[in-house]
Design brief:
Length: 456
């Protein structure tokens, strides 16, 4: 499918996928008399300039003469034949290559939910237009929000009213309020979408809500947590068999067997603050303690089978995630570093510095496991950032300035958008991942933006 300018003297090739849906990768090579040309600037243009963009553009050839660029097609673009032209200059000779592809990208049909904790409401935002659809009341201090896997319902914890607000996504209407127990702070939804597990920090307990009828079916006692710990303190395994809760003040982890809601307790290193249970085979769960220790729990024995010392003096470790492919753990804390652990041998591999950051607030991985997104801010001056880490190289590849007080971050299922909640001003920042640019700031219609979630 590729065509070249010439096989004599300077030459350039261009290779495109036969079809590109929203995003694809193009490649090519520049040579001179059969030898690779390093450092050539390859400019990329298309027959649909308003709907197609390239990053980087120009693309720079490496020591092998090869260049690569990401081709992004704008949302709401129907199936279209697209001509792409790659051109450069070698020894003052202009050369070019052309190739065709069929490109398309459906409209971004998703809804973003943000909780406004100081005005006791939530807002729904249209992902296609990046405008606020509505703002609706909840109970006292709405904190976290999660959407069922089928995209039909959003569940919101209300920290100061011991309740959960249920929202119907189709029309963003509050359809129910489920009374739970004190301090409903965080929640997870089972992978099959049948149950919601609500962590009640003040009780302490986990309430189980049946999605089919929004009935509270059980309150499961756990041990003492900490209201100051607002991070990933509850998680569910990928197969849905177990829910794990970090009992920070008790220095234990509660394990709930979802088949019968029985509970088991594991003694953990002092002050466990976060848990990552998303390992794809559901074999291991990782618990972060404030003393820079990660405990590796075997789900088959519900015992700690390994510990990982992070080796760096990062104070007040707060949160961790596991990439969806299960290969890496990423850890943030009250510092300007993100620590990385390889799970194949439970080894600390690197510490990534975030410029202009005193501490991180949240992190999330793309479903493709290609990128990790970390929100951070400054304590000495008003400055917030979204930091983009490339997993393959474990390096910071972009830092996007957002509002001054980023709280939570989420990424959509297609990996094309990242959404950041901000508490001051109460808003949502929208970042386009193809070039890591801030494309919209949406006023959230309340005060104290906190939890954020996006429909599948």
């Amino acid at each position: 499918m590729s065509k070249s300018h010439s096989d004599c003297f300077p030459s350039i090739t261009l290779n495109l996928p036969q079809q590109v849906t929203c995003q694809g990768t193009l490649t090519g090579t520049v040579t001179n008399n059969g030898f690779p040309v390093e450092g050539a600037e390859v400019t990329l243009t298309s027959s649909e300039p308003s709907d197609v963009s390239f990053d980087p553009n120009p693309a720079i050839t490496d020591e092998n003469g090869d260049y690569t660029s990401s081709m992004t097609i704008a949302p709401d673009t129907p199936s279209t034949a697209i001509l792409v032209i790659a051109s450069t200059e070698v020894d003052n000779i202009l050369i070019s290559a052309t190739d065709f592809t069929v490109g398309s990208c459906p409209a971004i049909m998703e809804t973003i939910y943000i909780t406004n904790q100081f005005t006791d409401n939530f807002s729904a935002i249209d992902g296609e237009t990046n405008t606020r659809i509505t703002t609706e009341d909840t109970q006292s201090k709405p904190f976290r929000v999660a959407v069922t896997p089928d995209g039909q319902y959003a569940y919101i914890t209300n920290l100061n009213s011991a309740s959960v607000t249920v929202v119907r996504v189709s029309d963003n209407t509050v359809i129910d309020k489920v009374n739970v127990q004190g301090g409903s702070q965080n929640l997870v939804i089972s992978p099959d979408g049948q149950f919601v597990y609500v962590y009640n920090i003040d009780a302490p307990s986990v309430s189980v809500i049946r999605v089919a009828d929004n009935k509270l079916i059980e309150n499961i006692p756990v041990e003492e947590g900490s209201r100051q710990n607002t991070f990933n303190n509850i998680d569910i395994t990928t197969d849905g068999r177990f829910v794990y809760v970090t009992n920070t003040n008790a220095s234990t982890v509660s394990v709930i067997k979802t088949s019968d809601n029985s509970v088991q307790t594991i003694i953990a290193p002092e002050f466990p603050v976060a848990v990552a249970a998303g390992e794809p085979n559901s074999e291991f769960v990782y618990v972060l303690s404030d003393d820079r220790i990660i405990s590796v729990i075997s789900t088959s024995t519900q015992s700690i089978v390994d510990t990982i010392d992070l080796e760096v003096e990062t104070p007040s470790l707060l949160n961790l995630i596991i990439t969806p492919d299960g290969k890496f753990l990423y850890v943030i804390g009250n510092a300007q570093f993100v620590d990385v652990v390889r799970t194949s041998d439970n080894t600390f591999v690197s510490s990534i510095e975030l410029p202009n950051a005193n501490f991180s607030t949240d992190l999330v991985a793309s479903l493709s496991s290609e990128f990790v997104y970390v929100t951070a801010n400054q304590s000495l001056e008003p400055f917030g950032t979204l930091n983009v880490i490339e997993v393959a190289s474990n390096s910071l590849i972009a830092q996007v300035e957002v509002e001054n007080s980023p709280q939570q971050v989420t990424v959509n299922s297609s990996g094309t958008r990242v959404y950041v909640s901000n508490s001051d001003p109460d808003s949502v920042d929208v970042i386009q991942t193809s070039d890591n640019t801030l494309i919209a700031k949406v006023a959230a219609g309340g005060n104290g933006g906190q939890g954020i979630a996006v429909t599948p």
